[in-house]
């Protein structure tokens, strides 16, 4: 295959480039920013929040992706990334009794190790008791992962262009792209994975997807390493520990807002969450406060596949709160389809063609 032009250099775009380099296919990544609108800002929890409430399509993608994270790290460790950035401290989730059986069924179905455990057994003073601990789930330090990926890809010949794609028109094969700085490219193979920007780009290709921005803010505190032993998730918010003692507190959800500046109200909201989940944080000042924009979609799993009516153009978008946990599988599925390989998982549910998406029988077997 000739060169692939990737619009969007968030986690989905970078991992798509990674999959292409594995197949020795040249790639160029065009992005107006560095680090993604969402990808650098996310918490990096390697599980959907309350995963049993999600469709099989989302769970299948995330389990396929989680199994790939160790392999990905073995390629990247040493490039601003350490094994401890893939934190396997586990995930504790506050679950009330009514939902406990659903959780057990879900864990059995997907083969996830789980144990019923009180939150305060893991983190003394934690105010929620009833819950389930998943020792094999955890989190990834996403900003470092993005840096390591960019460094790896550059060393493998992937080109990076810092610019905004303002026009995307279908051609007989591929698409014609034009950027804000006047660059014009006729590309035979294109991937659109521009996060929340994807819907505008895809509409230029005649495809309308029900996507919307969902702003999310986070705080970071510095504590001693190990103070928070695992991700602690409740309905009101979560704590995410990093190996160096940093603890992230998240997150706000503001639908329809695509600004990336942190707000005073977001800070108040998250400081209250922090003080509630870990009372010692009430007297501390957060070291960082930031915001990102999630690529929201009306369904609980992303769009991945060929863009209808556009030969050679593919897209992966709408990962909402689960782009980091599902990106390795998204990228592999996308590139497998692009290259005409047999996909690891049935692509039908993720199709951009509404007919195919709803008709999938694979997951109903
Ligand atoms: C606060 C917060 C917490 C989160 N926590 C988690 C979590 O714990 N676990 C998890 O799995 N997920 C989490 N997420 C969600 C996750 O970050 C996203 O689903 C994921 O990063 C989406 O990746 P992406 O590559 O599709 O989009 P993005 O990261 O947004 O990347 C898209 C890129 O496209 C570029 N772009 C857009 N339009 C154009 C254009 N016209 N021309 C050129 N470039 C363009 C943008 O600049 C951007 O860099 C969180 C998100 C937020 C905001």
UniProtKB/TrEMBL annotation:
Q: Which superkingdom is the protein from? A: Bacteria
What InterPro entries is this protein classified in? FAD-dep_OxRdtase, FAD/NAD-bd_sf
* Membrane-spanning residues: none
Q: Please report the stretch or stretches of sequence annotated as the FAD dependent oxidoreductase domain.
A: 4-337
Q: Which Gene3D superfamilies match?
A: D-Amino Acid Oxidase, subunit A, domain 2, FAD/NAD(P)-binding domain
Q: Which Pfam families match?
A: DAO
Q: Which UniProt keywords apply?
A: Oxidoreductase
Task: Name it.
Answer: Oxidoreductase
